[in-house]
Design goal:
The protein is an alpha/beta fold. It has 14 helices and 15 strands.
Length: about 400
């Protein structure tokens, strides 16, 4: 059995007579994106601060690679702490330093890099987080959302092995929110660091999370995958998770997963002996596009793709976002040949006119770009009786035709 990177064993934390954490047991595994969700004021930030050593438990033990933190020597503790980077909820930027200087500070304090090397690494993060216009400004001159991105750039600039994020995308519009989450996971995949995150951004954060921890009434009541959480019967799921998902996905305007699944089950119940046909639409090479255009612009493309799917299929389909860059549509027809024609019609319009193929305006974030090329993969599959939509979508995604587009 895999040894957790970080483990809480019966951890409690009290401040005077007030108990914040009560007998918490949790496991965080190396290389994963682990997201902690729970109500505001429920102790998530306190839990996060225990991980990095800013707080110590009143009772219980925290282990790192199976070893109790309490038993570490000062040297071992310093090595342990050096692997972490922390992105604070309130940003914790220095008002007397410019954006560039704030981002460079960890490199200046903890490395022996030359000024040229530091400048290069800082500008790389500036570009990744769409901060190219503000490196010489001060935090007080920036919006709250832009300050958040500066704090995020500073947390990543040292290329840490473990990064803790306290509400990294709070206060952002849907495109910026998903751009930040996309940037986190792309860098996590590229450099292999472990991500531990607190977030209220349901369901967007679920698309990037390997594991989810649910903090409820001072305890961890669930730890597992998003699909396992969806099946978890607990007041927290109905009270918090499903209520936050709402009816529509903020980024694409398509149905939320729960709304989609209810309609999907209705379709299957009404015609149990007929085929249910699933179409998928996915933006290809998102990592490459993010490097070329920036994460914000890529999320604008995904938003526009969702708008195109919604306009074209409308009442003739039920659509939802099932991944960071993938959309699934249940077509309201049971004939595979007819479904193929319907999909070909959509693909043809997309091929001829790009994301402006349908009524309405293409999102400004996309429309304002210089000319660029990308492709969308379109797939089709029949759902087997009782088959989960994710399984069907995966089969549809494995048999696709690519539509190359230029904007």
């Amino acid at each position: 059995m895999e040894t957790p990177l970080i483990e809480f064993r019966n951890v409690s934390k009290r401040f005077g007579d007030r108990t914040i954490l009560d007998d918490v047991n949790a496991q965080i595994f190396e290389g994963h994106v682990t997201t902690i969700i729970g109500k505001s004021g429920g102790g998530k930030s306190v839990l996060l601060k225990h991980i990095i050593g800013l707080l110590s438990p009143t009772e219980g033990t925290i282990l790192f690679r199976g070893r109790s933190v309490d038993e570490m020597s000062k040297t071992d503790w310093d090595v342990f702490r050096s692997q972490f980077s922390y992105c604070f909820q309130n940003n914790a930027l220095f008002d007397s330093l410019t954006v560039f200087e704030n981002i460079a500070l960890p490199l200046q304090q903890t490395t022996k890099l030359t000024k040229r090397e530091i400048d290069s690494r800082v500008m790389e993060k500036v570009d990744h987080l769409d901060l190219a216009e503000v490196p010489h400004k001060y935090p007080s001159e920036l919006s709250g959302g832009m300050q958040k991105r500066v704090a995020l750039a500073r947390a990543l600039v040292t290329d840490p092995s473990i990064v803790l994020f306290d509400e990294p995308s709070t206060g952002q519009d849907p495109i910026r929110k998903n751009a930040i989450l996309s940037m986190i996971v792309q860098n996590q995949e590229r450099f292999g660091f472990t991500t531990i995150m607190i977030s209220h951004d349901v369901p967007d954060v679920f698309f990037i999370s390997d594991r989810i921890l649910v903090l409820y009434e001072k305890q961890i009541v669930f730890q597992g995958t998003y699909n396992e959480l969806d099946q978890f019967e607990h007041p927290m799921v109905d009270e918090f998770v499903k209520s936050l998902e709402g009816i529509r996905d903020e980024l694409t305007g398509l149905r939320s997963k729960n709304s989609f699944m209810k309609l999907y089950e209705d379709v299957r119940d009404k015609a149990p002996h007929e085929s249910t046909i699933v179409a998928t639409f996915a933006l290809d090479d998102t990592d490459r596009l993010s490097e070329e255009l920036g994460h914000t612009q890529v999320q604008g493309i995904i938003q526009s793709l969702g708008e195109c799917v919604n306009r074209h299929f409308g009442d003739a389909g039920i659509s939802t976002r099932i991944g960071r860059n993938q959309i699934a549509t249940i077509l309201q027809c049971s004939d595979p040949d007819k479904a193929e024609l319907v999909l070909d019609d959509f693909a043809g319009k997309l091929q001829d006119k790009g994301l402006g193929a349908f009524e309405g305006e293409v999102h400004a974030n996309v429309d304002s770009l210089k000319p660029y090329s990308f492709s969308v993969s379109v797939g089709l599959a029949e759902a087997n009786p009782g088959e989960d939509i994710q399984v069907t979508a995966k089969r549809a995604g494995s048999r696709t035709k690519k539509i190359k587009l230029t904007h």
